[in-house]
Amino acid sequence: MQEVYDFLKSCGTYYLATCENGQPRVRPFGTVDIFEDKLYIQTGLSKEVAKQMLAHPKVEICGCQNGSWVRVAGEAVLDERREAKAHMLDQYPHLKNRYSADDPNTAVFYLKNVTATFSSFIAEPRVICF
């Protein structure tokens, strides 16, 4: 999991795919955190992406850099605890002007049943599950 986190963090921007009424939806994301041995992402509950993850928890993330990429498939689980929100926001203090650990709109999701596949044009894919 640490390797997946490090790769996504170093990408800066990665892409999250969700599903809405059978249609894939992909958008750029930039938050990633490890809290209590789980990989987390953050958004606002009022956003369509949060609604999509709540309705259809299977998601996929793709990040790339320097000719390598990782695809992270898993299930998004909403964690409503203040501690999880605060930990994420401490990693991204610039978000504190829009989100708060006490704001019910602040949403953090952790990923479970994860399969992460590291790939490049020059090496065989490598899979990590957690």
* C-alpha geometry: globular
- In DSSP terms (H or I, runs of 4 or more residues), the helix count works out at 3
Q: In sequence order, what are the helices and strands, one letter per element?
A: HEEEEHEEHEE
Strand content: over 45%
Q: What would you call the structural class?
A: alpha+beta
Total beta strands: 8
For the record, give the distance between the C-alpha atoms at the N and C termini, rounded to a whole number: 7 Å
Secondary structure: helix percent? 10-25%
Rg for CA atoms: 14 Å
Major beta sheet summary: 8 strands, antiparallel
Q: What is the CATH C level class, in words?
A: Mainly Beta
Give the rounded overall mean pLDDT: 98
Number of domains: 1
The CATH topology annotation reads as Pnp Oxidase, Chain A
Which key phrases capture this entry?
single chain; alpha+beta; 130 residues; 8 strands; globular
Account of the 3D structure:
The protein is α+β, with helices and mostly antiparallel strands. The chain has a single domain, classed as Electron Transport, Fmn-binding Protein, Chain A (Pnp Oxidase, Chain A, Roll). Helices cover 22% and strands 48% of the residues. The protein is built from three helices and eight strands. It has helices at residues 2-11, 48-55, 82-91, and strands spanning 14-20, 23-29, 33-35, 38-44, 58-65, 68-79, 106-120, 126-129. Strands 1, 2, 3, 4, 5, 6, 7 and 8 form an eight-stranded antiparallel beta sheet that branches. It is globular, with a radius of gyration of 14 Å.
